[in-house]
Amino acid sequence: MYIHPVIFQEALDSCRALQAGNMQQKRNIQIIEWEDLDKRKFYSFGVFMTMAIRATVYPATLIRTRLQVQKGKSLYTGTYDALCKILRAEGLRGLYRGFMVTTFTLISGQAYITTYELVRKYVSNYSKDNTLKSLVAGGSASLVAQSITVPIDVISQQLMMQGQGEHLTRFKVKPKTGANHSVFFGQTRDIIGQIFAADGIRGFYRGYVASLLTYIPNSAVWWPFYHFYA
């Protein structure tokens, strides 16, 4: 199909003008800094969304953890088999073993984003380079968050292994009687006491260095690219 050169040139010029306008609009996008945030909405919505997501995916996390820890296929043959056996033997509550403990990682989530924003603000006093601010702030935020998250994960993972999968861990809680809240806190205290008696404080930081080596570079690199493509 023949297109007149003048028409083609006009169309090309229009495309270039539109692209230039989009690029200019992109460059004019304001980066929201710490002082621009509505802190009340920032924290309240953050906690709500995090809780909703974690409540949804926690059963899958528990099943994955048990499948990873078991020897071969000694207890479960796969994801669906694990789901059925847990529901049959432990009920719905079995899929949420350790969930209440993991809610304390909400603290680490808020600590992460708070550290990120505050470090960005601090680095701004020395450099206006957005890439540098994001790099330093992202790495610092992950360091703080993992320092809080790892001990909570260690405790919650041990609780995940109780019940039907109790033979998969060296720590075992004794059955508790009484109100539900006593059962929960009793089991948690029991696990914490056993970990501390066996390994001391270091027992709560198993895998800490590996977590730092995983999450600090990831966070430090992700934020600069986020702002670059935003």
UniProtKB/TrEMBL annotation:
Transmembrane stretches, start-end: none
Gene Ontology cellular-component annotations: membrane
Solcar repeat intervals: 40-122, 129-230
Keywords tagged on the record: Membrane, Transmembrane, Transport
Membrane-topology descriptor: Multi-pass membrane protein
Broad class of where this protein is predominantly found: membrane
Compartmental location: Membrane
Family: Belongs to the mitochondrial carrier (TC 2.A.29) family.
Protein's UniProt name: Solute carrier family 25 member 44
Gene source species: Cirrhinus mrigala (Mrigala)
